[in-house]
Amino acid sequence: MDTNRKIKNRYNKIAKYFDSLERPMGTSGFAKWRKEIVPQATGKTLEVGVGTGKNIPFYPKNIDITAIDFSKKMLEEAKAKYQDSPLKINFLEMDVQNMDFENNTFDTVITSCVFCSVPDPVKDLKEIKRVLKPDGQLIMLEHVRSNGKVLGKLMDWFNFIPLNIMGANINRKTKQNLIKAGFNDVKVTELWKDIVKYFYVKNEKLI
C-alpha cells in the first residue's frame, strides 16, 4: 500500500473523532489564527484539505468556495456540519497531488495544517501553483520544523511518532518547499515560536 493511501485510510478511520482529537490545538491559538487569516480569502477560492471544515465559519460571505479533501469520511463530516451554511461551498473528494481543475482557476488557495501530512509537499505545491491565477494568493497556516539547533533535531528524531499514528510530520520545511515549487514571493509570520507560521504567497508566473 502506498503512503498516500495509508494516510487516507488513517483519516477515514478517525474522521468521526477528529475534532475531539484536535480540540487541544483548537484552544491553544489555532481557532484565533484561523479567524485572523481565513477572511483574507477573495474571489474564487480553493481550500485544500478542508477536513471537518474548521475554517468554514471564518470565510467572507461573498466568495465562491471549493473545498477538497482526499478523505471521503472527513469530507462527509464537513458536509454534514455545513450543509445549511449560507456560504456557496462546493465539496469535492480530490487529492491535491492531481487536481481536476484547469490552469489559472482560483484567486485564492487556503491550507491549514495540511502540509504536515501530504507525502510529496513540493509536488502538491506545484499543483497549487498551476491552478492559482497569476498574482493569485496562497494563504497557509502550518506547523513546521523549528530552526532551533536543539529543538529542530528533537523534531527530526521524534517525527516517527506522529507520522506512524496519523501520517503527520512535525519537521516539514515549508518555506523551502514553497521555493522549490517555484514560489518566489514568500512572506512568513511567526505565530507561535518558530513552529506555527502564517505563509502569504503571491503567485508570480506567466499566463
Automatic annotation (TrEMBL):
GO terms for biological process: methylation. Pfam families: Methyltransf_11. Signal peptide: none annotated. Residues 46-140 form the Methyltransferase type domain. GO terms for molecular function: methyltransferase activity. Its EC number is 2.1.-.-. Keywords: Methyltransferase, Transferase. This is Class I SAM-dependent methyltransferase.
